[in-house]
Amino acid sequence: MKKLINDPANVVSDALRGIAAAHPELRVDHENRIIFRGDAPVQGKVGLISGGGSGHEPLHGGFVGLGMLDAACAGEIFTSPVPDQMAAATKGVDGGAGVLHIVKNYTGDVMNFEMAGELAEAETGVQVATVVTNDDVAVEDSLYTAGRRGVGITVLLEKIAGAAAEERRPLAEVAEVARKVNANGRSMGLALTSCTVPAAGKPTFELSEAEMEVGIGIHGEPGRRRVPMAPANEIAEMLVSPILSDYDFTGGGGVIVFMNGMGATPLIELYVMYNEVANILGKAGIPIARSLVGPYITSLDMAGCSVTLLKADDEILRLWDAPVRTPGLRWGI
Amino acid sequence: MKKLINDPANVVSDALRGIAAAHPELRVDHENRIIFRGDAPVQGKVGLISGGGSGHEPLHGGFVGLGMLDAACAGEIFTSPVPDQMAAATKGVDGGAGVLHIVKNYTGDVMNFEMAGELAEAETGVQVATVVTNDDVAVEDSLYTAGRRGVGITVLLEKIAGAAAEERRPLAEVAEVARKVNANGRSMGLALTSCTVPAAGKPTFELSEAEMEVGIGIHGEPGRRRVPMAPANEIAEMLVSPILSDYDFTGGGGVIVFMNGMGATPLIELYVMYNEVANILGKAGIPIARSLVGPYITSLDMAGCSVTLLKADDEILRLWDAPVRTPGLRWGI
Amino acid sequence: MDTAAFSAWIREFARLVGQNKDYLTELDSAIGDADHGANMTRGLNAVVKMLDEEKPDTPSALLKRTGMTLVSTVGGASGPLYGTAFLRMAAAAGDAETLDDGTFAKMLRAGLDGVLARGKAQLGDKTMVDALTPAVDALDATLAAGMPFPDAMQAALRAGEEGRDATVPLVARKGRASYLGERSAGHQDPGATSVTMLLAAAATTLTA
Amino acid sequence: MDTAAFSAWIREFARLVGQNKDYLTELDSAIGDADHGANMTRGLNAVVKMLDEEKPDTPSALLKRTGMTLVSTVGGASGPLYGTAFLRMAAAAGDAETLDDGTFAKMLRAGLDGVLARGKAQLGDKTMVDALTPAVDALDATLAAGMPFPDAMQAALRAGEEGRDATVPLVARKGRASYLGERSAGHQDPGATSVTMLLAAAATTLTA
Ligand SMILES: Nc1ncnc2c1ncn2[C@@H]1O[C@H](COP(=O)(O)OP(=O)(O)O)[C@@H](O)[C@H]1O
Ligand SMILES: Nc1ncnc2c1ncn2[C@@H]1O[C@H](COP(=O)(O)OP(=O)(O)O)[C@@H](O)[C@H]1O
Ligand SMILES: [Mg+2]
Ligand SMILES: [Mg+2]
Ligand SMILES: [Mg+2]
Ligand SMILES: [Mg+2]
């Protein structure tokens, strides 16, 4: 394992110190491992918090700031944060209008946020709403399982719900917007290599030079199937087809296309992939309204990519275009 | 070799198509492989063009837009573009105030830009000034060699000179600002792995699990020396010490710190590194005025990082803070 | 069983998990995200530190602080699940200074019920439930049949180990392994494995 | 030597480089950026296409278009250097329909001078200059001594090959290899190697 770290045990706390040093406009609670907007709590605004295991940077800490999250809780690498953190974050961003918890659908994340919500409401009476993202079409959607993973849509949702909160809309409406984004979004990902969890010290899975894992999540967990390496146009097909079969993206105001890198994939490859995805959407008669290309929800040093499509409408596009000022996403300000 | 590409021969043209599709605000001349600002030429503004081998994305094409470059020429992977491209770009961005060529100091880049300047001036009489970046302290600075490589400072220079041009300052002044940035900037880089050039199909060099290459550039060329793997704090020392020995960064308005990823290094590691660099600067009594953390001048799928320090003054900070709107860097607009 | 016995139990659980950290992570690599060993070790190290510093003076207090510490330090799926289990055990232990066999068995079942309530897994979903359920059932059954506690606890451990082994062929329906679908079959569940360490620790420390 | 002979020369150069593409890239991997084979192949493929399509009708036109095509398609260091070399050769060839041995030798020296002017390398800097200079010198000397052209060109090739081999121990002072400092020693220069292919192509095609 070769990593730019001091000690596997300190990766998260060291990185948080780096974030604090690089972004004086944020406030980092090192004890609780929470990244706050410098001006949190913003009075009268719904507070947005998210969090999850570390190793997905810039998600979530890199999305804290005006127009997006009010706070992010950093767990250990790939391990959801604990309720204490989320409860502290909830209190810290409560500006009197309630708090929205944005939770990716993983057993650990859901349970920890659940316990945090119970804690925070019991202790302080702050009103908490929760939205759970579950956009990964690689996983079967079923009542009898853990359900679909929350992946790429989380980035778009944090931006769009953040903009709705910035408009001072009430908690119920912000949660409603967030749920709409999740309902209208689908993702699919693929890995060319495994990632290496620092504490584990070696790749989570082995993959030969000739193969790739299709249907991976963002935690280095193996995918749904292993297939031979293929050119970018076929890979794009493998990612986009299941998305288009799962949900009708025609009609509406076009789609927001999010071409995400898993952490070790160079941008030039993401643009090659984006071109193929755009071609497929063109043939399917689905207009592209906006796009985002880059590593925004990553899986440590995994090579690979994921595609997220979000069916847009006027409200979604207006909120997407609204100003945002975070380390990871910024425009309009 | 595992890459998200169709064919090693088409990587650059496919990626340019992806850029065109993802960024409708830009205009891509596919034949000449030039990425233009959509509104180029901007009348009365000095035009800034840069270019170089591909594989360093977002540099340079991702830095085209308001407040930064007017055009970027994309060469083959790691191969400088040809004079025809640069001459066409020069003509395409000439808004009557002359054109600045921003060239990284590599034999190929320098010679090709030289021939382009000769061509463009001869054919159209447009006034061309050139600034060559050479900030890499890993390489000895000597009249008898090819001199130092242009690396990280190029990103900061394109931003700052772009802001000066946006202020409608004349060519000589914009060139002057650019030269000041280069003169006040130093960089040093390090690789944990080699990159793989698509056409070559295998890593440029082999590096064991226990070693790293110190003093690498951005083309996968081997570094100055091979040393045992070390923790982040020692690595930061290896990068920052030679920079501080080479140039006096005390006094002035502090420094802009640019912690760059080489393409396959996850952001969490860059923040761990940034923290160590900030510690070293703190001990050296050098205040940090601004910072930039992320993969901005990359080397395909190389894992590693580089540190660039730029000694700032009021003018540099004002221009750094000025609005910029490009795919790779954006704020204030 | 007094507070000292429970302290020994938890410490032995921590020792076993620490010793098998890489093994647990290995199991979690195959069908999860390679952190179960690290998660449990981090949490149990914090618990041992808490025990050293706070020296809780009743079984219930000890179990409650253990649960709270696990909740606050483990994260992931196992944090709330183990945490809830210990919190429910603490509640079931009541105010007693020492617990008899029957109360211990009730306590363990309360822990299982907590895991079920929190995680909503069913038997056969390939989770820690698959080791804990047969163990709790076996403990109840053997104690009811009049078996002395040490033997009953051994039987519970064996049932748990069988449950753990039986997770191998299962297709996961809960937790991270469920994302693998059919590919999760053929691998042993990490959480069921750490549960057998909890049982083994009880079998060695609570039988004295 | 007429236009057809020059066409054969360039095509043979293209064939040799194409055949050795991976080898040239291998050499460039050790002390450069792993693209010399790809660069030269891309450029010379474009040149062959140009020759097929345009069929230039004088030696000078052919050399000029070859140089321009290389400049426009190779990029990197080798593009301007080989391009300038051919452009200077074109100028030295003048308007003649056929060239004699002496003019060819002058032409080759003009090419070398172009490389020197453009790249500012000196002999011993571990560049293509180190193969081209001894070759041009040997051609001049052997022709001056009255050796027939085929033998003189063979001598030039051998001198070029010796020059190429002599780059191995050198520490590079120009081009990308110079960044390696002392570590560049022990490796053969890729550009000097492709130059010997230009010479070998001349030795086989221009001697008829
Ligand atoms: N819903 C659930 N109910 C019971 N146990 C579960 C559930 N989900 C997961 N587990 C258990 O948790 C274990 C994984 O724990 P761990 O790796 O620490 O957390 P994570 O899955 O968040 O990385 C699994 O092996 C399984 O036994
Ligand atoms: N200044 C120079 N003068 C002469 N030849 C040079 C000079 N710089 C580089 N070269 C030659 O160019 C070769 C490398 O060409 P190539 O790999 O195609 O370009 P790049 O170095 O830009 O990747 C070197 O092996 C060397 O022979
Ligand atoms: Mg986990
Ligand atoms: Mg090159
Ligand atoms: Mg796990
Ligand atoms: Mg090269």
Can you tell me about this structure?
Chain A is α/β, with parallel strands linked by helices. Chain A has two domains: 11-184, Dihydroxyacetone kinase, domain 1 (Rossmann fold, 3-Layer(aba) Sandwich); 185-324, 2-Layer Sandwich (Hypothetical Protein Tm841, Chain: A,domain 3), CATH 3.30.1180.20. Chain A has eight helices and 14 strands. Chain A has helices spanning 11-22, 83-93, 107-124, 153-166, 171-183, 232-246, 267-283, 314-321; strands at residues 26-29, 34-37, 47-54, 71-77, 99-104, 128-133, 185-191, 211-214, 225-228, 255-261, 288-294, 304-311, 324-325, 330-331. Chain A has a six-stranded mixed beta sheet, sandwiched between helices. A six-stranded mixed beta sheet of chain A has the order 9-8-7-12-10-11. In chain A, helix 2 (83-93) crosses helix 3. The relative contact order of chain A is 0.15. Chain C is mainly α and 208 residues long. Chain C has one domain (3-205): DhaL domain (Serine Threonine Protein Phosphatase 5, Tetratricopeptide repeat, Alpha Horseshoe), CATH 1.25.40. Helix content of chain C is 71%, strand content 0%. The termini of chain C are close together. Chains in contact: A-B, A-C, B-D. One magnesium ion (MG) binds at residues 28, 32-33, 35-36, 76, 176 of chain C.
Termini separation of chain A (Å)? 40 Å
Strand order in space, largest sheet of chain A: 1-2-4-3-5-6
What structural class do helix, strand and pairing data of chain A support?
alpha/beta
Low-confidence stretches of chain A: none
How many structural domains does the protein architecture of chain A include? Answer: 2
Give the structural class of chain C.
mainly alpha
Per DSSP E runs of 2 or more residues, the count of β-strands of chain A stands at: 14
Which second-level CATH architecture of the largest domain in chain A applies?
Answer: 3-Layer(aba) Sandwich
Radius of gyration of chain C: 16 Å
Which term fits the overall shape of chain C? Answer: globular
How much of the sequence of chain C is in beta strands?
Answer: under 5%
**Major pleated sheet of chain C:** none
CATH level-3 fold name of chain C: Serine Threonine Protein Phosphatase 5, Tetratricopeptide repeat
